[in-house]
Design brief:
Blueprint lengths: L1 H20 L4 H4 L1 E8 L2 E12 L1 H20 L5 H4 L4
Antiparallel strand pairs: 1-2
Length: 86
């Protein structure tokens, strides 16, 4: 728990900076692309998956949730889209 508390402030500062400047940290943009194989068959690939930084995934979720809430509160989503959940 101590590590989480120690990381909260620097991550919050980076999040705020990213939102204020509109620029994502370069290291948060990188992804390791890995093939996803079908179960039991390493010759057949389902498709690639991108493994990205967990901090960037958290920020994307925060922004998506805030944007979705704003759209719902202001009734800016169509009936079809408002039923979609992330």
């Amino acid at each position: 728990m101590t590590n989480a508390i120690e990381l909260t402030e620097p991550i919050t500062i980076k999040f705020k900076s990213t939102i204020e400047t509109g620029r994502l940290l370069q290291c948060w943009k990188y992804a390791n692309i890995t093939p996803l194989f079908k179960k039991g068959d390493e010759r057949s690939i389902h498709g690639p998956i991108g493994l990205t930084c967990i901090v960037s995934k958290i920020q994307v979720k925060i922004v998506r949730d805030c944007l979705t809430d704003h759209l719902r509160v202001n009734k800016l989503l169509s009936a079809k889209l408002s039923s979609l959940d992330s």
